[in-house]
């Protein structure tokens, strides 16, 4: 499992274990939902939910092969503890863009 | 091997199921909360066809009830005391890890999962569980073996010919010998002689010197009586309590009385201190009887005659021999 940015169009190629092929679409779909949920929670200043969502992403991302999701999740969890709205907004935008630019390769 | 995954994250449950499934663990069930896990374990009520897991992977951070609280509840149930539970935790939670081990976790795995590490820990926990199960089975086998052994010992004791305390023949054995010697005497037309001996003032001896001393006294008396049995066909047995039965074959009345007197003197000669007895030492009284077996007579009659003679010996002051006149042939 590895991630490597591909030059030009900004596509990020992520190599994932073929064993997980069936699970990856659902996993990524849930992360898209996380983006929405995080933005909503930021509006509501729901720090507990933000912390939980970040913690959860941190725990699952790397296991699926998406190390960036773990890194971003850890950042969101930390920022939520510090109630740092701007940091969370920056991180969720990064996550959103990451999800839009990944290309999953199984092998 | 059934594995239960308790994790509120559906992505994490699916991932674990996939990793475990690919490693050959096909019987993996998921629970999204501690409450669901309790249901799976049958803690909330009876479950039809309940199959208990051999291993639990429990996420620590879950809403409603965290993994440590859940583990405490599971461990409180006797049957889950040995169920291996691996805690699943984010890398930076060393304080909660301590709490997890305190609650009885056998191991921990960090998220995100490292496949090799995960499988190694699962394997070793399952091996541990397997070994514990085997040990429990062996313990149960040992328990049932012990029960059977005790039954056999009990049976063998019933078949035994020896008195456990004194090492001489027991009453059951003596009754067989008496029957045999009775028939032999009947065949030969010769008198059969029987004596009942009883230690004098034995209860006061026990009270004064204690039961261990009482047992030792019985052993020494038994040994000295047995030492006097010199001819084939002579038998001594512990008949009960402090009573001894003695069989003397093919002898006349003076011969029997001589044997009886020898026994009495032997015991007196042991010099076992007994300060509340008139002679200050342990002594025996003997009742002797003799019969030539005839139609209409039987061993119990011979025993009863000796018993009556013993009673007379006791009445006459103990430490003496009485002959049963009514038992004379």
Concise synopsis of the structure shown:
Chain A is an alpha+beta fold and 107 residues long. Chain A has helices at residues 24-44, 47-64, 67-81, 85-101, and strands at residues 2-5, 12-16, 102-106. Chain A contains 4 helices and 3 strands, in the order ββααααβ.
Can you offer a commentary on this structure?
The complex is a heterodimer of chains A (107) and B (329). By secondary structure, chain A is of the alpha+beta class. Chain A has helices at 24-44, 47-64, 67-81, 85-101, and strands spanning 2-5, 12-16, 102-106. The relative contact order of chain A is 0.21. The mean pLDDT of chain A is 92. With 329 residues, chain B is an alpha/beta fold. Chain B has helices at residues 10-22, 34-40, 67-75, 94-102, 115-159, 171-188, 202-209, 211-227, 253-270, 299-315; strands at residues 2-6, 27-31, 55-59, 85-90, 107-111, 192-199, 235-240, 243-249, 284-291, 321-323. In chain B, helix 7 crosses helix 8 and helix 8 (211-227) runs antiparallel to helix 9 (253-270). The longest helix of chain B has 45 residues, at 115-159. Chain B is rod-shaped.
Provide the descriptors you would attach to this structure in a database record.
heterodimer, A: 107 residues, alpha+beta, Four Helix Bundle (Hemerythrin (Met), subunit A), 66% helix, 13% strand, elongated, B: 329 residues, alpha/beta, Rossmann fold, Alpha-Beta Plaits, 2 domains, five-stranded parallel beta sheet, 10 helices, 10 strands, rod-shaped
């Amino acid at each position: 499992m590895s991630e490597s940015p591909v030059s030009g169009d900004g596509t990020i190629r992520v190599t994932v274990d073929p064993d997980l092929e069936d699970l990856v679409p659902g996993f990524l779909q849930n992360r898209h939902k996380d983006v929405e949920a995080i933005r909503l929670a930021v509006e509501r200043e729901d720090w507990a939910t933000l912390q939980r969502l970040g913690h959860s992403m941190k725990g699952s991302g790397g296991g699926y092969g998406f190390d960036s999701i773990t890194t971003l999740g850890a950042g969101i969890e930390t920022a939520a503890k510090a109630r740092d709205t701007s940091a969370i907004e920056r991180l969720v935008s990064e996550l959103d863009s990451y999800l839009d630019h990944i290309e999953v390769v199984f092998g | 091997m059934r594995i239960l995954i308790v994790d509120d994250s559906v992505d994490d449950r699916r991932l674990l199921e996939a990793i475990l499934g690919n490693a050959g663990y096909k019987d993996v069930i998921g629970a999204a909360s501690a409450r669901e896990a309790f249901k799976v374990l049958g803690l909330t009520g009876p479950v039809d066809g309940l199959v208990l897991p051999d291993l639990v992977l429990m996420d620590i951070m879950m809403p409603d009830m965290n993994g440590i609280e859940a583990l405490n509840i599971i461990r409180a149930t006797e049957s889950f005391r040995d169920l291996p539970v691996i805690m699943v935790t984010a890398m930076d939670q060393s304080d909660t890890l301590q709490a997890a081990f305190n609650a009885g976790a056998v191991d921990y795995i960090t998220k995100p999962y490292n496949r090799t590490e995960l499988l190694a820990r699962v394997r070793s926990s399952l091996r541990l569980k397997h070994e514990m199960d085997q040990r429990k089975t062996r313990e149960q086998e040992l328990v049932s073996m012990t029960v059977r052994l005790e039954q056999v010992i009990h049976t063998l004791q019933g078949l035994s010919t020896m008195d456990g305390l004194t090492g001489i023949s027991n009453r059951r054995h003596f009754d067989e010998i008496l029957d045999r010697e009775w028939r032999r005497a009947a065949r030969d037309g010769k008198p059969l002689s029987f004596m009942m001996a009883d230690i004098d003032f034995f209860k006061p001896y026990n009270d004064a010197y204690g039961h261990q001393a009482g047992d030792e006294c019985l052993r020494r008396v038994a040994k000295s009586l047995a030492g006097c049995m010199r001819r084939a066909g002579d038998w001594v047995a512990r008949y009960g309590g402090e009573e001894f039965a003695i069989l003397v074959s093919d002898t006349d009345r003076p011969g029997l009385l001589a044997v009886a007197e020898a026994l009495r003197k032997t015991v007196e000669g042991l010099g076992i201190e007994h300060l509340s007895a008139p002679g200050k030492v342990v002594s025996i009284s003997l009742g002797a009887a003799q019969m030539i077996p005839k139609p209409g007579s039987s061993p119990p009659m011979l025993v009863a005659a000796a018993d009556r003679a013993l009673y007379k010996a006791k009445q006459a002051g103990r430490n003496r021999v009485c002959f049963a006149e009514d038992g004379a042939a």
